[in-house]
Amino acid sequence: MSNGDLIQKYRPNGVRITDLSAQLWCEKQLEFGLEKGRIETREMNKGTERHKELHEEIATLVKIEPKIKADYVALRLHNIQVGLERLIVEGMTRELPVFGKINSLFVIGIVDELNLKDNDLVILDTKTRKKDTMPSEAQKRTTRFQLMLYNKLIQEFVCEKFSTKDLMSFYGFKKSDNISDEFKKQTTDIGIRIEPNIKKLADKSFELFQTLPIPEKIMNIRYEFQLNKKLIGVDEFSFESRSFQKECNFCEEFWLGKRKAIPVGIDNNWKCNYCEFNNIC
Predict the structure, then answer these.
(1) pTM for the model
(2) CATH code at position 65
(3) How many structural domains compose the chain?
């Protein structure tokens, strides 16, 4: 596909952070997944259920249905505002939406957990494992990159390098754009008040980010055994600027159509044993 076609076809509202981290595991798997869709495995479902369970420990989840683009963006901004207010008051929040620019790519994602204590902002993620063992270095690499991406996006918010203007420009919103009347009624009916104007809502969300410290370079990934939620271990690692930028550049080339997806090399073809596209790759 030519420059930008891949994004327009599959990710017009933003490339997912998980897409970028998946590229470090296997780009061909990501490409097939975009084209054909992924099969939700039992392990994937278990991970999703665990994240929902952790979120429900600190928040009451309600289901609402956005109708237009402004509704979807407003919902993300509202969840950012609620999450950051909880973080500032209680010192912890979970499932916090983020977005921003990684090189030339507009990206979106959800941070698993943020902790704020003594003016230190720490990013934490929880991963579930089918086996009661720590993951391989190849698996750790993808998750570490994912957390470094979150770290970078939050840095951009805190330092005002990504603003309301950038968000409005990407989505093509005007200053007067509001959520739909139907979406407003949905939220009102369940007792939630969302600022109807996208610009005002974005301004408030970004102002909250700017009250935070820059996130710590040290991050943590907790690995749990799916069978009983037992802690297997914690992978503590540091933000490495040079390798991070190299990996961002690598990912960007694929999305801009500058090169085709790269399969795993001979040293990593063991990954193919775990891939649903093995028979067509």
Answers:
(1) 0.92
(2) 3.90.320
(3) 1
